[in-house]
Amino acid sequence: MGKKKISNEQIVTHLGDDYKKFHGAVVPPIYENSLFIYETFEEFTEAMESEHSNYLYWRGTNPTVEIAEQKIALLEKGEKCKLFSSGMAAISAAILSFVKTGEHVLSISNIYGPTTKLFKYLEKFGITHTNINSKKIDVIEAHIKPNTRLIYLESPTTMNFQIVNLPEITELAKQKGLHTIIDNSWATPIFQNPIEFGVDVVVHSASKYLGGHSDLVGGALITSESLMERIFYNEYQLLGGVMPPYEAWLLMRGLRTLPIRMKAHQESASKVAAFLETHQTVKKVNYPGLTSAPDFELGKRMLKGYSGLLSFEIVSKEFESIREVINALEQFNIGVSWGGFESLVLSPNNGQNYEQLIENNIDPGLIRISVGLESEEELIKDLDQALLSI
Ligand SMILES: *Cc1c(COP(=O)(O)O)cnc(C)c1O
Questions:
Q1: Mean pLDDT of 198-222
Q2: Which of 71, 196, 307, 317 is the most buried (most CB within 10 A)?
Q3: Is residue 3 included in any domain, yes or no?
Q4: 169: closest CA among 148, 191, 147, 190?
Q5: What is the pLDDT of residues 318-346, one digit of tens each?
Q6: How far apart are the two ends of the chain, measured CA to CA in Å?
Q7: How confident is the model over 75-104, as a mean pLDDT?
């Protein structure tokens, strides 16, 4: 593609769809075949030499999956993308590609729960991990050990949606010879492109906004061509958590509307956040799109927009109040995940983990909502009645 500017809208609607190749089909077909056959053994052996650029077997490349990968790579302004069977498969592959026994990973602020569990799991292979709650660059630098290889990031962070200064951290990482990975699921490539700020690898849970319809689980990894070649022959093919073509086809369908969905999520969520901020039962709203957010100015340097996932802290820290608000909501369904068409609610407070919440810098009164594509007036009315019930 070179340096030619191409819009996100053009990428999701037509790019790579290859109408000529597929008899003018307006939607590329699903290649539901596990292997590809060759006419001669010479052609086959030649193709085997570079499996990343030939079709041989589904655990490597597939034409349907490849179209979705091409679109996501361009949206993220990265050279290459590979799709995985889940966000966690992409995250595991990314982390394992950089560390080995005896090495150390540093993560900053609140990271997605299962990713933190993965770091604990990796201890059995002699890979250690430190998470620091400070975002200050000198504190981060002070926690870099001689065996640190990787800085793992999320921005905005999980649950409290704080902004991390990406250019500052990647500059430090480069000085120290460390690699950086960021989970960019919250912002999506529409609202943030971390590769532009020097991050080496971007990962996504495609199960959230990229898919957008709560009908698929998948992951994406975006990086340079050279890093990807290494990851393809190692963590991608050997751990084998690859995206099946049907999921890639669903993902492509979701991607078609990603730019307009994100616009709609942003519009509703900003109004919901502004409403919550004025509510007498609410003490704090964690949403980097609010001009009153402590990180608003910093966030503006990296984010082109704000998605629909946010949290707020009710004045009462009692589990009973949390339970009542969540049960009183009618438009917000109770469930894990986020980023789909439907509004969702949950709280990390389960009534028995007060100390753990404090330790993780999470207010016990915190409720997380994913603002879906329903009417924002109805969502606001619903939040109002639920909050007034306590
Ligand atoms: C859901 C999620 C993941 C994991 O993705 P899966 O597709 O569920 O494996 C990773 N990071 C964040 C921020 C998530 O919300």
A1: 98
A2: 307
A3: no
A4: 148
A5: 999 999 999 999 999 999 999 999 999 99
A6: 56
A7: 98
Q: Are residues 235 and 274 in the same domain?
A: no
140 and 220 housed in the same domain: yes
Give the tokens for residue 382. 């619903």
Euclidean distance between CA atoms 160 and 99, whole angstroms: 28
Q: Hey, how many other C-beta atoms are within 10 angstroms of the C-beta on 378?
A: 12
Average pLDDT over residues 215-231: 98
Mark whether 199 and 291 lie in a shared domain: no
C-alpha of residue 189 to centroid of ligand 1, in Å: 15
Q: What is the dihedral of CA 215, 261, 66, 118, to 10 degrees?
A: -60
Atom of ligand 1 nearest to the CA of 154: 13
Lining ligand 1 with CB less than 6 A are 86-88, 112, 158, 183, 185, 205, 207-208, 217, 219
- 103 and 26 in one domain? yes
Same domain, 249 and 263: no
| Domain span at 339 | 258-387
Q: Is the pTM of this model over 0.85?
A: yes
> pLDDT tens-digit profile of 156-204?
999 999 999 999 999 999 999 999 999 999 999 999 999 999 999 999 9
Q: Say how far apart CA 170 and CA 102 lie, in whole Å.
A: 23
Give the residue whose CA is nearest to atom 5 of ligand 1: 87
Instruction: Give the pLDDT confidence of 105-126 residue by residue, as tens digits.
Output: 999 999 999 999 999 999 999 9
pLDDT of residue 5: 85
How many domains does the chain fold into? 2
Whole-number Å distance, alpha carbon 88 to ligand 1 midpoint, is 6
Atom of ligand 1 nearest to the CA of 217: 7
Distance 87 CA to ligand 1 centre (A): 5
Together in a domain, 272 and 170: no
